[in-house]
Design a protein that fits this description.
transmembrane helix; mainly alpha; Four Helix Bundle (Hemerythrin (Met), subunit A)
Length: about 210
C-alpha cells in the first residue's frame, strides 16, 4: 500500500531535517574544525555551508512539520518532538547571528589568552549542543514520532534506524579526530600572531 499524502509529507520533513542537522550542519562544523588547522581561508566555506545550504533546509523542514501539525488536528508544539524542533530552530538562528557577530565585531580588550573572545567558545559549544540535540531529535522521530503521528501503517525500516546510528557515530568520531589536530591549529595561530606582530613592528619608524 503506498504512502498517504500525510505520510509522504512526513517522510519529506524527516529527510530534510535529517540532512540539514546531521549532514549539512556537521559538514560546516568539520570545515571549520579541519581547514583552520591548515589555512586561514576557512570562514567563508564554513559560513556558506551552515547558512546558505543548511539554513533553507532547516526552515523548510520546520515549515513542513508545522503544516503536519495543522493537518493532524493536534495543537502546535504539544509533544516532545515538536517542542525540540522549535528549540533547534531558535538555537540555529542564535548560532547564525553569533557567528556573524564574532566575524564582524571584535572586542580586543576581552580576549582570552591565545587571542580568542568569549563568544568564540560559546559559538563552538552551541554548535555542538545543536548537533547533540538534533541527534536525539532524529532518533525520537524515527523510533517514536513517526508511529505516533502516522498510526504506523508503514513502520520505519531498521535500515533507516541503522543508518541513523552510523551517521551519529561518524559525526562524533570525525569531530574527535579533528580535536586531535587542535595542537597544530594553536601552533599555527601563534605563528600567525607572531608574523603579524613582526609586520607591525616593521612599519614603526626607527628614530
Amino acid at each position: 500500500m503506498p504512502l498517504s499524502a500525510f505520510e509522504n509529507k512526513a517522510r519529506i520533513h524527516a529527510h530534510l531535517a535529517f540532512f540539514a542537522y546531521l549532514v549539512a550542519l556537521p559538514l560546516g562544523v568539520f570545515i571549520a574544525r579541519y581547514l583552520r588547522t591548515f589555512t586561514n581561508s576557512w570562514f567563508w566555506p564554513h559560513a556558506i555551508v551552515n547558512f546558505l545550504i543548511t539554513g533553507p533546509l532547516i526552515v523548510t523542514a520546520f515549515a513542513l512539520g508545522y503544516q503536519m501539525s495543522d493537518l493532524s488536528g493536534e495543537p502546535h508544539f504539544s509533544d516532545p518532538h515538536q517542542k525540540v524542533g522549535l528549540a533547534l530552530l531558535v538555537m540555529y538562528l542564535i548560532q547564525v547571528f553569533l557567528g556573524a557577530f564574532i566575524h564582524w565585531i571584535k572586542f580586543p580588550s576581552l580576549r582570552f589568552p591565545g587571542g580568542r573572545l568569549p563568544q568564540n567558545y560559546l559559538h563552538a559549544v552551541l554548535g555542538l549542543a545543536i548537533i547533540a540535540l538534533a541527534s536525539w531529535q532524529t532518533h525520537y522521530g524515527l523510533w517514536y514520532e513517526w508511529a505516533y503521528v502516522t498510526g504506523n501503517a508503514h513502520p520505519v525500516s531498521w535500515r533507516c534506524k541503522d543508518f541513523w546510528v552510523a551517521i551519529v557515530v561518524i559525526i562524533w568520531t570525525l569531530y574527535a579526530v579533528g580535536l586531535g589536530l587542535l595542537p597544530r591549529q594553536l601552533r599555527k595561530e601563534a605563528d600567525d600572531r607572531g608574523a603579524k606582530h613582526e609586520r607591525l613592528n616593521d612599519d614603526v619608524p626607527l628614530i
